Amino acid sequence: MKQIIITFVLCLLVGNSIAQDDRYAEGNKQYSDGDYQSAIDTYKGILSTGVESGSLYFNLGNAFYKNGELANAILNYERAILLKPHDKDIKFNLELAYSQTTDKIESVDDFFLSKWVVDFRNKTTSDTWAFIGISFFVLTLVMAALFFFSNSSLLKKAGFYLGVGLLLGTFVTLTFSYHQKNKLLVRHHAIVFSPSLTVKSSPDASGTEIFILHEGTKVEILSSLGQWKEIQIADGTVGWVEESSIAMI
C-alpha cells in the first residue's frame, strides 16, 4: 500500500516537471511551426533524461507521423497509450496510423467478458486505480467500525454488507492497478521496423520462411534466444525474427 502511494506521488511530480520543462514548450512550438525533425530531437532530448509522460510520447508520435516515419509514430503512440490508456486522441491517432500499415491481420476474438474487463481496466491509469482502491479500503475500515461499535442492528447490517462490497472493490481496483503498472514495467510487445521482415520457423537465418511482415506491425514477444525473438501476431501465428528488426514498446 505504501509503495502504491509513493508511486502515485512520484508520477504527479514527474508530470509537473515535464509541464515546467522549457524544452517541452520549445518542442511544441517547433511542431506548430512545421519543423518536425527539430521537434523530434527536442522531445527525444527530454526522454533521454529519464523523464516520460503520455503527452510527451503522444507529441513525439505526432511529430514522427508528420515527418513520414510511420513505424516510429506507432511506437510512440503505443508508449503513450500505456501511460494514458483512456486518452481518446491517442487512440484515434494510433488507429489512424495502423490503418496506413501494409499488414492487415485479423485478430483472434477474445471472450466478450474478458474483453469487457480489459476495456474497463483501461479506462484509467494504474495510479488512479490505486487511489480508488485506497479510498475503498479506508471506507471499508469505516464500515467495519460501524459494524463493531454501532448499537443499531440496522447500522450493523449496513456496515457489514457495505464493508464486504467495499472490500471486494478494494481487491478489484488494486488488481487493476497492479495490471496497469505491470504493463509499464514488463513490456511484451514490439513494433516491426524493417520495411520487409521475413519470419522464420526457427531462430536461425537458414530457418524456413513462414510469412512476411512490414514496418509498423505490432507483435507480441513470446521468448528470446540470443539475437532472435519468438513472436506472435494478432491472428495467433508464431515465428522467429531477429531482434534488430523490431523495437520494444
Task: Describe the protein.
- With 249 residues, the protein is α+β, with helices and mostly antiparallel strands.
- The chain folds into 3 domains: 2-98, Alpha Horseshoe (Serine Threonine Protein Phosphatase 5, Tetratricopeptide repeat); 112-185; 189-248, SH3 type barrels (Roll).
- It has 9 helices and 7 strands.
- The longest helix is centred in the last third of the chain and has 33 residues, at 153-185.
- The two termini are 28 Å apart.
- The model is unreliable at 2-15 (pLDDT under 50).
Question: What are the main properties of this structure?
Answer:
7 strands; SH3 type barrels; 3 domains; five-stranded antiparallel sheet; 9 helices; two-stranded antiparallel sheet; globular; Serine Threonine Protein Phosphatase 5, Tetratricopeptide repeat; alpha+beta; 249 residues; disordered N terminus
Radius of gyration: 23 Å
Assign a percent range to the helix content.
Answer: 55-70%
Query: At the third CATH level, what is the topology name of the largest domain?
Result: Serine Threonine Protein Phosphatase 5, Tetratricopeptide repeat
Corresponding CATH architecture of the largest domain: Alpha Horseshoe
| Average pLDDT score | 90
Choose one word for the global shape.
globular
Helix count? 9
- Give the end-to-end Cα distance, rounded to a whole number of Å: 28 Å
> Main sheet: which strands, in order across?
6-5-4-1-7
Order of helices and strands: HHHHHHHHHEEEEEEE
Q: Major β-sheet, in short?
A: 5 strands, antiparallel
Structural class, from helix and strand content? Answer: alpha+beta
Whole-number count of domains:
3
Give the DSSP E fraction (strand runs of 2 or more residues). 5-15%
CATH class membership of the largest domain:
Mainly Alpha
Q: Uncertain runs with pLDDT below 50, 5 residues or more?
A: 2-15
Write the CATH homologous superfamily of the largest domain: Tetratricopeptide repeat domain
